[in-house]
Amino acid sequence: MLYFYTGGDREKARAAIQKEVERAVKKGKASVVRITDANSVEDLRTVLRGPGMFTPLEAGGSLMGFGGKRVLVFEGVCVNPELIDIFMQSLDALSASDENVFVYEEKPLADLRKKIEKYASGVEKFDSPKKERDSSVFQLANALKKGDKKALWVGYLREIEKGNAPEMLHGILFWAAKDMLLRSRADSPDRSRGIVLVSTLAELPHASRRNGFDLEYALEKFALSLT
Hints:
single chain; alpha/beta; Rossmann fold; five-stranded parallel β-sheet; 10 helices; rod-shaped
């Protein structure tokens, strides 16, 4: 019987497979044979010929001289162009076998996934955990609008350490300055401050290029000069 596992959360998928493998081994006193994309064509062909021809790969043995029940685990085989055709042609026989066969492909294309599912007695999908959206970069906009020099400078350095591009951070600050200007009342302090910030930030990239000064450091200097 063939069981198909897929999805980007490899740790959970492997843990689920290992749990079933251990159960099958205990129940049938079987040996485990694993084939991955790193194995050779001959390794795969030997396994597909059936028991009695090999020792378990995970025990470090050669592919000869071992018999008995098996639990077969195929992981990432379909990403190897030398193995995929041979493996796909064997799906019918593997699904009809009385051996426990576990197949894991992380992100198979839809056509490939459907073909494997056709022969699977069970399918489990383990999607990658959703990453929480990091909105900390927009705190820079709030710090600029409030005139909080320390928060802007510390936040800016933190975003640079994360690998965010200075050009992106400049864009966020420029947007914040324009937003403040557009929302301010005529003749208000915010209007005057907004005009200065928009003008300064608009000129900043051009001035840094003229002076041979990296935008990253030009923005840091701007943050420290905030009033």
